Every structure is written in structure tokens, then in C-alpha cells.
């Protein structure tokens, strides 16, 4: 039997964040009645979503609560605590790193939430699991913070920024240029009734990434010039410093300390992440970082079924610690 409950976590590091996003964050926990000593699996959502959205009812069985219950019923998993923190922001999502323009979400996870969960449930076994931006967040935090997490599952995470971001810059530039700056475009975006126009989604993704990768104080520096979309090499360099493909050269020793690392990606990923993650995989092999790497038939969306494979694997790895 599993129990679902939620808490309102009051963050110190998110208080007074530049976007005035909530610093009291809702967190949903699913797990057995007796939670002490269990593995803790924290789920990070993709961009444009909150981890709470992963729990929304899906009649095809794609929601995480149904998935967890099914895996338990089939005895593919045992006794983990599944954690879904709301980390949505006004720039459309989260990359799970600190930003002077957005907030200290890296500190929120590493210095507040994870220590809280470890103490509350008397557990020192923690995994980060995510898709897209969530997968990016998991692996980049494991790179930067040795020993805080024991395992990472990275489903189609952002990697090799030239291929996953650059192709959308021209379309985003056209939309943002109408308003003269990223901040003015963002303000106008939130006043629109239709927030799913393809051009706006491209602009939101670019503005959001810039808010995390290239903040200038509380301002958002774009990686291109608005008059003709020429790449601003100085700003673009800041982006590349956050690319896992580059960061692994600096942090591979930290990844070696993980008890489990899984990376997978669809062979037809619409953001070219099949190439980026293949490059990352090759570099991990070069540095002899133990990991599972898999490619599957599919694109970037509709791949939550991959958790059916990753959750049992990561839980088993944590139970061996």
C-alpha cells in the first residue's frame, strides 16, 4: 500500500527571487506508510511543466502515480519514496541551476530540499530522474555536487547546445524583436490568451534558457542580436559553459562517484538530442564513467514510458548501497 501526501516547503534561498515566484513550494510525495530508510527518487520535469504535472491523470496510464502503482503491482519495484517538487517559474520552466535573473533553484535542491528529505526519512540514498530539462538538471547537478546524489536518470536531456538550441534562434529572434527585449517580450507573453503558438513557444524556450545560462544581474542577455540574429559570441560562450558535453571534461570525476547513471534518447529527437547525448556518451566512455546508454525508436515527446525501465533499474541500484 502506498500513500500520497503533499507538503508546502518554505524555502529560504528562493525568498525574494527576482521574478516574485512562490518561495513556498508544493511537493507531492508518494511512498509506503513506513518511509524511514527508503531510497528517495526526486523527479524533475521538462521545460514548460512542473513535476506536479507528471501526476495529472492520464487514461493511457502515462501519469506517474498510475505508473508507480503498476510497477509495484507487477513487483518490478519495492519501497522507494517518490518526490515531485513544483519548481515552475515565470520564464516557463526550470533548468535547475542558480540564476541571478530567476532564483537559486540549484541551492534549493542541493542545500534545502535534499538535506530535508534525507533527515526526515533517515535516508542517504537519493536519485534525480528527469526528462528533457529535468534530465539536464539531474546530470548537471551531479557533475557540480559530488556526493549529494547517488544516482541520475537522464531521459533525452539537453546536450550539445549547437544542435538543440541554435536551430530555434531565428524564429525566436523574430518574435522577441517585436518587443525590443527579452523582458518586454516575456511580459507581453503572459498577457496573451493563447500561450501555445509555435513562434511563442520557440521564443519562450530561448528566453527561458537565456535567463538561466546568461543572466546579467536581473536582466536576461540573449545569445544573439535582435536586429539580424547574429550570434553574440560573448553571451553564447556563457551558454556553452553550461553544456553537459563541455562540463563533463571538468566534472567527470564527480560522475565517477555515482552508483548509477542512465542516459537514453530517441533516435528521431526533434531537438537533435540524439546527437548531443551520443556525443556525451562517447565522452563518458573516454573518461571511463560507468553508465547505461540506450537509444530507442522515438522522438522527444510521448516517451514517459521509458520510466518503466529506468525506475526499477535506479531503485535496484540504490537498494544495493
Q: Care to describe what's here?
A:
The model has no long low-confidence stretch (mean pLDDT 97). This protein folds into 2 domains: 235 residues, Rossmann fold (3-Layer(aba) Sandwich), CATH 3.40.50.1820; 78 residues, no CATH class. The chain is built from 11 helices and 12 strands. Helices cover 38% and strands 18% of the residues. It has 321 residues and is an alpha/beta fold.
Measured distance between first and last alpha carbons: 24 Å
**What is the CATH third-level topology name of the largest domain?**
Rossmann fold
Low-confidence stretches are none
* Rounded mean pLDDT score: 97
**Class by helix and strand content?**
alpha/beta
Name a few traits of the molecule.
single chain; about 325 residues; alpha/beta; Rossmann fold; 2 domains; eight-stranded mixed β-sheet; two-stranded antiparallel sheet; 12 strands
Task: Compose a concise summary of this entry.
The protein is of the alpha/beta class and 321 residues long. The protein has eleven helices and twelve strands. It is globular.
List the helices and strands and how they pair.
Elements: E1 2-10, E2 24-32, E3 40-44, H1 64-73, E4 81-85, E5 98-99, E6 103-104, H2 105-120, E7 126-131, H3 133-144, E8 151-155, H4 161-164, H5 169-177, H6 182-189, H7 198-213, E9 215-216, E10 219-220, H8 233-240, H9 244-256, E11 260-266, H10 273-286, E12 292-296, H11 307-319
Parallel strand pairs: 3-4, 3-7, 7-8, 8-11, 11-12
Antiparallel strand pairs: 1-2, 2-4, 5-6, 9-10
Amino acid at each position: 500500500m502506498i500513500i500520497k501526501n503533499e507538503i508546502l516547503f518554505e524555502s529560504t534561498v528562493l525568498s525574494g527571487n527576482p521574478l516574485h515566484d512562490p518561495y513556498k513550494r508544493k511537493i507531492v510525495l508518494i511512498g509506503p506508510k513506513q518511509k524511514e530508510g527508503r531510497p528517495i527518487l526526486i523527479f524533475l520535469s521538462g521545460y514548460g511543466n512542473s513535476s506536479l504535472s507528471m501526476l495529472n491523470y492520464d487514461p493511457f496510464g502515462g501519469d506517474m502515480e498510475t505508473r508507480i502503482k503498476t510497477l509495484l503491482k507487477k513487483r518490478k519495484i519495492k519501497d522507494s519514496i517518490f518526490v515531485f517538487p513544483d519548481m515552475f517559474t515565470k520564464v516557463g520552466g526550470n533548468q535547475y541551476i542558480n540564476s541571478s535573473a530567476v532564483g537559486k533553484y540549484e541551492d534549493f535542491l542541493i542545500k534545502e530540499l535534499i538535506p530535508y528529505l534525507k533527515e526526515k526519512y533517515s535516508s542517504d540514498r537519493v536519485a534525480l530522474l528527469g526528462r528533457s530539462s529535468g534530465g539536464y538538471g539531474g546530470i548537471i547537478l551531479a557533475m557540480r555536487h559530488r556526493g549529494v546524489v547517488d544516482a541520475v536518470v537522464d531521459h533525452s536531456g539537453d546536450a550539445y547546445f549547437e544542435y538543440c538550441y541554435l536551430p530555434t534562434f531565428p524564429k525566436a529572434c523574430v518574435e522577441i524583436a517585436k518587443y525590443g527585449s527579452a523582458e518586454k517580450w516575456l511580459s507581453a507573453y503572459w498577457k496573451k490568451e493563447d500561450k501555445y503558438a509555435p513562434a511563442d513557444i520557440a521564443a519562450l524556450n530561448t528566453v527561458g534558457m537565456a535567463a538561466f545560462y546568461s543572466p546579467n544581474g536581473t536582466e536576461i542577455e540573449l545569445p544573439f542580436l535582435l536586429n539580424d540574429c547574429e550570434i553574440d559570441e560573448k553571451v553564447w560562450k556563457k551558454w556553452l559553459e553550461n553544456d553537459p558535453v563541455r562540463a563533463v571534461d571538468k566534472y567527470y570525476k564527480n560522475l565517477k562517484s555515482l552508483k548509477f547513471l542512465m542516459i537514453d534518447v530517441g533516435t528521431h529527437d526533434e531537438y537533435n538530442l540524439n546527437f548531443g547525448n551520443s556525443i556525451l556518451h562517447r565522452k563518458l566512455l573516454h573518461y571511463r564513467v560507468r553508465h547505461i546508454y540506450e537509444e530507442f525508436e522515438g522522438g522527444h515527446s510521448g516517451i514517459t514510458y521509458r520510466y518503466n525501465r529506468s525506475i526499477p533499474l535506479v531503485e535496484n541500484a540504490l537498494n544495493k548501497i
